[in-house]
Structures are given as C-alpha cells and as structure tokens.
Amino acid sequence: MAIITLFLLIILSAIALIPFVRVQWKGIITVATVIAIAILSSVVAFHTLAGKSFEYVFQGSLVTGKIPVRIDALSGWFILIINFTFITGAFYGLQYMKAYRSQKSNLSLHCINYILVQSSLIAICSLQNAIVFLVAWELMALSSFMLIIFEHYKRTTLHAGINFLIQSHISILFLTLGFIWVAMRMNSYDFKAITLFSTTNSLGSGVALFLCFFIGFAIKAGFVPFHTWLPYAHPASPSHISGVMSGVIIKIGIYGILRMLIVIQSDYLIIGYIILFISIISGIYGVMLAIIQHDLKRLLAYHSIENIGIIGIGISIGCIGIGRGNHFLTVLGFAGALLHTLNHSLFKSLLFYGAGNVYQSTHTMDIEKLGGLVKRMPQTAFLFLIAALAICGLPPFNGFVSEFLIYNGMFAGLHGSDKALLSFIVFALFGLALIGGLAMLCFTKAFGTVFLGTGRHHLEHTPAEAEMGKLIPMYAVFMLIMAIGLLPKTFVIALSQPLSLFTHLTANNIPEGILSLTGTMSMIGLCSAIFLSLAGLIFLVRKRITSNQPKTVNVTWGCGYIVPTGKMQYTASSFIRAYRKLAEPLFSIHKIKKEIKGVFPKTGERETHPYDKAEEWFIDYPLLRLKKFFNRFTFLQNGNLQFYILYGMVFILLVLAIPFLFDYINSLIKFLNQV
Amino acid sequence: MISFILIIVASIFFTGIIIRTKSITSGRKGPGILQPMKDIFRLFKKGAVYSKTTSFIFQIAPSIYFGSVIMAILVIPFGQYKGIISFDGDFVFFAYILGTGKFFSIISALDTGSSFEGMGASREALFSMFAEPAFFILMGSLALLTGHTSFQQIFASLHFGSYISYVLGVLATFVLVMVSLVENSRMPFDDPKTHLELTMVHEVMILDNSGFDLGMILYATNLKFAMYGALIANLFMGSFPLYLTIPIFFGIQVLYAISVGILESFMARFRMNHNAQYILALSSVSLLIFLGVLLVLGQFS
C-alpha cells in the first residue's frame, strides 16, 4: 500500500513540477522520476520473480467494484522490461531533445507524457479490474499519442499520430466488448470473473472471448493485418520514443495476450493454431516489407512486426504444449516468447537510438542518401551492427537464444504429434528459417548502405559522432545484449516463475526434459564465448603474422577503372532488386519512371514507393467504400441553418414519439390477440 | 574430436580433387591435388592491399568468417562419436553460426563501396536465405524420424530399414549436396572460374581481399566443403565401428569431390535471375522427405 501511494505521489509531484521549472531541468526531473518509478516497481517485480506474489485490494467505488492490484511473476517480468527500456530511453532522450530546447511548452508536455506512459504501462501490468484496466489503457494510448506527435507542426507526423489514435481506440473497443461480455454474465469486473466465465461456459464461447481480446491486443502489438498504424507512428516520433514504443509499448499487447491465456481456461489447441497462423504471416510479411523500405525508421518499424510474429510463434507453441499436456513444449514456447520480448526490447531500442544518432547528424532517414558513416561515427556504427546481428538472431548475441528456444520447441513438438500439428510445425519451421534469412538480407542492406562504402549524397554538414549522452545509454543496452548472449542460463532460470504460471508446475515435480534445458542453455553461452574468443584469437594471429608484411592502401578494385566515385556504388535498391523482382506480386509498389530516350537523351528518372498491400485491402478499401456510402447522405448537410434546426426538432419528436408509438402498437396487438 | 581432425585432413585435398577431376575431364593433366593448399600458404605469406574506402569491418570480417566455419565444424559428429560440441538443437547453432560468418562476409563486401562487390553480396544474401528453409525442414524431418534433436543422436540412430527410407537417404543426400553447393557458391548456382565480374557471386565479393585475409577465406571454403562432406558421410555411417567409418568418411568425401568436379565440367551455370526460385524449390524436396518420414512413421495409415 505504501509503495502504491509513494508511486502515485512521485508521478503527481513530477507532473506538477515539470511545467514550472527551467528548460534544462525538465529533462533531468523526468529522468529522475522515471528512475524513481522504476526502482519502486522493480523492487516488487524482483520479489515476484523470486516466487512471491503481491496482492492488494482497493475498496474502489460503486461503479468499479473492488480494485485488485495483483502483481505476479508475469507482471514482474514485463515491469522489469518496461523499466529498463524507459530508463535508457529517458537518458537518450535527455541528450536527443537538447536540439528542441526552444519549444519549452512542447517539451513540458513531452516529459509529462513520458512519465505517464511509463506509469500507465506499469499500472496495466498490475491492475486486474476491467474498468480500471481500461482507464489505464486509455491513459497509455493518449499519452503515447502525445509522445508521437511531438513534432506536430509536420503534416506527416500529425497524420501518423491520428492514425495511431484511431487504431488504439479500435483496440480499446474490442477490449471493452470482451470485458462487457464477461461483466454481463458474471456481474464482476475482476479478472477472476473471466476465469470463472471460461470454466462455466462452453469451450466455444471461451475461444470467442479470447479472440475478442486477442484482436484488441493484437492491434496494440502489431500482428498482421492489425499492424498498419505501426509503420507510420515509428518514423514520425522522436527516436527515443520510437525505441521505447517499439521496445515496450507494443509489448503490452503481448502482455495482454499472455494474461488472457492465463485467465481464460479454454481450448488451448485451437487458440494455439490460430495464433501460430497469424504469427507466421506477421513474421514473414513484416520482414518482407521491411526489406523494400527506403526510410530507415520505417524499415525498423516493419521489423517490429516481424519480431512480434516470432514472439507469437513462441506463444502459440506454448499454447499447443498446454493443449497437449506436454510441459516441455509449454516451457520452451513461453520461455522463447518471454525472452524474445526482452531481447527485442533491447536490440530494437538500440537500433532506434542508432537511427536517431544518424538522423541528428545527417538530418535524413533516407537510406539511399546515406553511406560511409562508419568512418564518421564509428561507435554508433559498432552499436548498430551489434543490434543488427542480434535482431537477425545470430549467435553469440541475445536474439539467438530466444529463437533457439522457439526452434527447440518446434523440434520437441514434432515428437509424437498428429498430421495436422506436424504440418503446422513444418510450416512454422519453414517460416522461421525464412524469416531469419530475410532479416539477414534486410540488415546487411540497412547496415551496409547507411554505414559502409562512401557517401551517396552531399550532406549540408559533415556528420559527426553522437555525444556521449546518447552513447552511454546505448552501451548500457549493449551490455545487457551481451549478457543474455553469454549467460542465457541465468535469464532462463529467472523465467521459471513466469513460466510456472502456464505450466502450474512446482519446483519439486519438474520433468527431466525441462531440467536438461538449463544445461543446453549453458552450452549455448559457452559456445558463444568460445566463438568470440576463437574469432579474437584468429584476429590476433592474423595481426601478428601480417604485422611485418608490406601493406598498401589503394582505391577499390573497379575492373580497371581507377577513379571510383560514390555514385558507382551499389545502392540499397539495387542490393535488393533481385529479391524485389521475385516478391513483387505480393507487394504494391508505386513506380514513377522516365526512360532515357532519343539521340540526345535528357535525364532519366526512376522512383519506387513501397506501399502496404494489407493496408490497401484492410484499411483503404473499406474506408473508400464507407466514404462512398456516406457520401450519399451529403444532401443532409446543406449548410442551411433552418434545416439543421429542423433535424433537431425531428430528432426530439422521434425520441418522444417512438416510445408512445411503441406502447400504442403493443397494446393494439394485445387487444387484437384478446379478440 | 575425431570428426574435427578428419575434416581438417579432408579439407586439405578436397578442392584439389575437384580441380583434378575437372582437368581430367577436359583432357588436361592439371595441377596436383595439394596445389590449392600450396596457393593458400603462399597467400598467408604475402602482403596485402587495402582499399581506402574500407573500415574496421573489412579488417575483422575474414577472421570472424573463418572463426564461424571452425565453430560450425566443432558441432559435426562422427557417426556415434559426438562432435567437440554437442547439445540438443545443435544443428540450429550450426546453421546460425554459419549465418554470422555470412553476415560479416556480406558487409565486408559492401564496405569496399564497389558496385561489383555489392552485386555479389546481394546475390549471396538472397541465395543463402532461400537455402535455409530446406536445411531446417530436412533436419526437422530427420528429428521426427529418429526422435532426437542433436546431430550426433540423429545420425547415430538413423538406420535405413525399409525401401522408403532408402529413398529418404538419397533425397537427404541430394538436399545436403545442393545446400552445400549454394553455401560454397559452386556450379550450378555460381561459377567460381568465370572471368567476368558480372556473373560471379562469391568470387566477386572477395575481389578486394588479398594476402592473409584472402588465404583465410579460401581455406574456409575448403573447410566448408569438407564439413558438408562430413555431414553427408554421417548419413551413412550409422553406428558402425571406427575401422569401417573412417574409410566410409574418406570414400564419401572423395566421391563428393569428384561428383562436384564432374558437375562443374558438364553443366552450365543456371540463369542468375532464376537461381533464387530454384533454390527455394529445394525446400519442396525437403518437404518430400518430410512426407516420406510421415509414411515411415505410419501417419497415413
């Protein structure tokens, strides 16, 4: 109780303080508040990971009923993830926002909303009363909307923000529907009522309830086809916000799905199949579109969709495990999903911070215009490279550990399954392997064109390395990435409490297979360490041997041509051209072409603008139809005040008359019946 | 341990045999089978030329690439004998550690800022990406067939009983050979002896590497060949005793090298823009294996 009071007190006092202090102090107060909130909530979260759970019931009001605050291990895990990324984001933002110091009131709003998002996310993880949960969810949606539209004077930013706002509310609509359904039947807003609902009603209604929640949370998490807000919102917001949003805000959708899996006891096998199908589509579709993007931040945004897909594959394997009563499968699936949630929050925020460094020193995010930054910004390039390797799931970094768990889950799931499940798993194997390869194509493109080679475009200022204020939080993320890569065992053991929520196993009756998992994990850590030292050793040997050999520096081999220029380099578009040609039928790419013709040719042009086919089908087309439909009623809006007053009159008349009329007809029918 | 030593031994003469086969089929005498290794040793002693466009990526990439291949070899078992590293799901590690090496070789090609090398890098990234699913579905099918999830356990308990499983063995060999040809950038996917940069894949990526780095990259190619040869040999070793498996191992390595040589002598390279589709089609062969495994397990009865 004391903790909750202190928690609210800190938030309120910070919000009250920020607008009135000097602009230099706004950021510092925000960072301090974020850290204070983080420490308070992390203390509780660490306790839950050690096996305790925390419960406090507020009396609440007549409307809400009792408000239980329950923090179990699942909440604890997500609270820790949220806090880490919010702290690094706050430190990064402190330096990043120095460029915007002239916009004082805008900055105050930004700082306040940053704190509000963090606290509302923590609240979402701990509140278990439907109404209060929805209030916290709404608070989170609104304050993240405010964070996105920081640069609201840009038209595209505002457009992205409003897109986000609308889709967030569609998400809330589905959640509200789900909660109302439960409340109608069970007459309680407590999450325990949902469990009761699913156990007392038929399996079908449990699945339907889950799907209702799933759609709501999937919009937040960015599963295909509910992802369309994501590629707009990420590039529009400042880089630390993109990092935090991609790292943790969309993960609250994953939290919601996991929470619903715990509280809804239903047919896990069918739920697993549905999630598996959607996740594989999300994973492949996300990365396929990521490859063809020209905007670095948009590319990263599409990668979030891919990674949400990978997390979803983990979740679905876990569900199938529960459905089949196979604890090993459950543990592998959920462990992979939970660990990948952490991992993705790390490398994705690092990538966005790196993109932020690039943006602030070159003032463009267009991949085609960048190049050769590794020499100007070696530290940013190094950190970006590590994050890129990690997101491709390559050892010795953290992404590999979680993908390995999911792979292992699939291979374990093969054993003793029936045809349907087997085909699903093989489909998933195909998908995950393809996602890995596509991610590699994408990040070799992104890293290669942005940082390597020579500049492709004349930049106004010579790019310079980012300030230490930005690099230090990035190094902090880097350290955690390496720690997970090299010591995966520790993190998997830390997951044992959240996992026991799904398996309901206690420490005494854990099957043999799960125990051997920690051995495998330490082997992976060992292999990663061996690989790093092996590569280092080879490099040292090479250095030793080549130190007294002659070395010359010359131009790049140009097939005999000796004055290579930046324009001769392979561009990002040409790097992926073969791929684009192959996958073209699945995309909708708008091309503008001006061919080179004639004896004395003038300039030629060629532009490609990748667009999202899912958006075309699921958003644009229905919207167009709706618009057409509503356009038929434009005659009502004729700008004539007299008419509008008439509408009002007609409305009031109808409201009054209809009940009368209804009663009258009713009595008439009764009378006729009697006759 | 034993597999590691034997793969190193096989790697010494592997490319030599390929080159010798090619020269015999084309009616030349050809160099001795140790010539490629001699070339590599000469490269180790040479100085190097670096492009001024390159950065530290170009310096570290060959070492990491070489390290990744060594790491992958450590995982390969020898029949019933474990590799130096063995754990559940080690073939995932095998595929992904090779991926790490490939990532570095691709970005080191992009580091030179050359259009040729960018072209090669683009193709390498695309082709190897499509080869990945085939490998994973193959391993998944074998894991399903044997009920184990590590290289050594799979290979030790893999025994051919029925007619279908012989077919499976042949198909698995086919997939592994094809995957290895993609990974090593050989015919019919890539022509290592082509004279035009525009038609190369792997060779064009290392245009700017020289001296020790080039030596390492070339030797890594030999190692990769012997590594895939060892994987194929593992399909047939089962739990035979050592005095049988070592001759089987070398027999298969030599046979594999000769068939690569013959393939390269009598076959033209595929059209570059259809390569990707062809490689993706390998996954369907893997799927065939998967269906075969289902047949063996009686899932259809």
Characterization of the model:
The complex is a heterodimer of chains A (675) and B (301). With 675 residues, chain A is mainly alpha-helical. Helix content of chain A is 73%, strand content 5%. In chain A, strands 1-2 form a two-stranded antiparallel ribbon. In chain A, helix 4 runs antiparallel to helix 5 (130-148) and helix 17 packs parallel to helix 19 (468-486). The model of chain A has no long low-confidence stretch (mean pLDDT 88). With 301 residues, chain B is an all-alpha fold. Chain B has one domain (2-31, 53-296). Chain B has helices spanning 2-25, 35-45, 56-75, 90-111, 115-146, 151-156, 163-183, 202-205, 211-237, 242-266, 272-296; one strand spanning 48-51. Chain B starts with a helix and ends in a 5-residue tail after the last helix. Classes of the chains: A mainly alpha (675), B mainly alpha (301). Chains A and B meet through helix 16, helix 17, helix 18, helix 22 and strand 3 of A and strand 1, helix 3, helix 4, helix 5 and helix 9 of B. Strand 3 (551-554) of chain A pairs parallel with strand 1 (48-51) of chain B, so a sheet runs across the interface.
Name its key features.
heterodimer, A: 675 residues, 73% helix, globular, B: 301 residues, mainly alpha, 1% strand
Short summary of the structure?
Chain A is mainly alpha-helical and 675 residues long. Chain A is built from 26 helices and 5 strands.
Side by side, the strands of the main sheet of chain A go 1-2
- How large is the radius of gyration of chain A? 28 Å
Termini Cα gap of chain A: 68 Å
Share of β-strand residues of chain B: under 5%
Q: Give the proportion of residues in helices of chain A.
A: over 70%
- Oligomeric form of this entry? heterodimer
Number of DSSP helical runs of chain B: 11
Reported for the largest beta sheet of chain A, the result is:
2 strands, antiparallel
Binned, the helix content of chain B reads over 70%
**Roughly what fraction of the amino acids of chain A lie in strands?**
under 5%
Q: How many β strands of chain A by DSSP?
A: 5
Number of helices of chain A: 26
Radius of gyration of chain B: 19 Å
Which runs of chain A of at least 5 residues are low in confidence (pLDDT < 50)? none
Structural class of chain A: mainly alpha
How confident is the prediction overall: mean pLDDT of chain B?
Answer: 85
